Structures are given as structure tokens and as C-alpha cells.
Input
Amino acid sequence: MENTASLFDSQTSHRATDTKSESQLCLIENAPLKNAGVGLVQRKTQSAALLRLLIDAHGSWVPLPEILKLGVAQYGARIFELRRLGFIIENKSERVAGARQRHSWFRLLNSPAGP
Output
């Protein structure tokens, strides 16, 4: 009887640690995307915020200062990530004020096909 009780105790303590904590579930939720689509826009990542801005522009040019307002670190890397996921993002730049400044814009031309 004593062995059965200790076996039961060890199983229940193991099961209690088997459940996923809130932080583990968050890690699962934020796992790398295998398919770009609506799920990317719903996530709270920098790439998702940038994509949402481009989508909301409906194909219009988005100036770089607007992108920078998002607080996106390394916006060029985020654009690259979105392009690797299949999004067609066009960019243009112009020299202004006697070639001392460069102004840049980005726009989303289309998104990848669904699964």
C-alpha cells in the first residue's frame, strides 16, 4: 500500500510539472511562421506591425518616417523577412536638398498565396 501511495504521489507531481506554463504557451504562440498570411498580421511582432502599415496603405507609398514611428528595429531586416515570406514590397528613394538627404518610401504590391 505504501508503494502505491508513493507511486501515485510521484505521478501527480510529474503531471503537475507537465502542464505548459503561460510563458511556454507564449513561446509556442510566437514560434516562427511556416506560412505567411493573416496570422502574421495578427501577431505582435515588428514584422507584423510593418506589414499592417503597408496593408493599410492599400498600395500607396509609405514614407520611411512613418515606418520609423512604429519603433521597428532594423526596418530593412523586417522588410527582408517579409520579402522572404513572399510579400512583394517595392521601394524607391530620392535625393533631396542638393543630394544631402535621401527620402525613402515603401509599398506592398501583393501578398503570397494562401496555404
In short: Strands lie at 62-63, 88-96, 101-110. Residues 35-110 form one domain. The two ends are 55 Å apart (CA to CA). The longest strand covers residues 101-110.
